[in-house]
Amino acid sequence: MADAANTACLATGAGGGARPAAGVAGTPFFSCEDVHAYYGESYIVQGVSFDVYEGEVIALLGRNGAGKTSTLRTIARADAPQLRRGAIRLAGHQLDKMNAYQASACGVQLVPEDRRIIAGLTVEENLRLSQIAPPIGWSIEKVYERFPRLAERRNQEAITMSGGEQQMLAVARALCRDIKLLLLDEPYEGLAPVIVQEIERIVGEIKALGLTTIMVEQNAIAALNLADRAIIMDMGEIVFTGTAADVLADKKLREEYLAV
Ligand SMILES: Nc1ncnc2c1ncn2[C@@H]1O[C@H](COP(=O)(O)OP(=O)(O)O)[C@@H](O)[C@H]1O
Ligand SMILES: [Mg+2]
Would the CB of 67 count as within 6 Å of ligand 1? Predict the structure, then answer.
């Protein structure tokens, strides 16, 4: 498991000061280039290319079934869908050559739609579990400072918390790893509007910290309010790339792909 790709990531990931100077003179911090991915013989991600600059928040939008989750999973190097062609690069590392474990060690953290909170463990145990292997990001103390709600509930069994609190924990758990690229899959899904506002505040804070983020969301307006740029997918392909303001101003585009 500890091959060259993985070792290289651990070496640059833990130090903090060793981060490459990305975003300089137009160099993308992250890029997908002609990415094609399959579930078995089902061809799903069909030649996706895009760049992300350091510190950007990208809203990845599109209808249900467009291929957004599959794209995030491909970037995180999940076993499925299987990447068959294309390059995925993050801060000089070739993610396309890695497995999920190696990509995580390189700083890619996916917060999946179902949140994957571990049953039978308390809030604190869930957080500690994410820190069993380096590179480690935020300390538990820092998480509690930024998420007082989690501090109050540190000894509660995590799956007994509300949906919003579980989403907070899922994001906090990702921050406990040393992140270079945060992938959020529908963080607002199933949450009441007032809770969406609270998660929005957290994503806003993450943005203020300068963390590069790709956020998939059905709630397009909420995502666009936070995002710097938007990418719209349809049927496994990118059909639009532009600023969040461009999307908000384009009624036809919104009606066609976002139903808002
Ligand atoms: N595990 C899987 N096996 C086969 N097909 C899948 C699997 N997961 C998703 N798909 C298919 O891939 C397409 C894109 O799905 P997905 O990436 O989940 O879309 P989105 O997140 O945009 O709603 C859909 O047609 C879906 O049915
Ligand atoms: Mg999805």
Answer: yes
What domains lie within the chain, and their CATH numbers? 1-9+29-107+180-260 (3.40.50.300), 117-177 (no CATH)
3-state secondary structure at position 159 = helix
Which ligand has the minimum distance to the alpha carbon of residue 68?
Answer: 1
Q: What is the pTM of this model?
A: 0.91
| 45, 70, 75: residue to mutate for ligand 1 pocket, most atoms within 8 A of CB | 70
Residue with tokens 């490459």: 20
What would the 3-class secondary structure string for 72-123 be?
A: HHHHCCCCCCEEEEEEEEECCEEHHHCCHHHHHHCCEEEECCCCCCCCCCEH
- pLDDT tens for 164-185 read 999 999 999 999 999 999 999 9
What percent of the chain has pLDDT above 90? Answer: 85
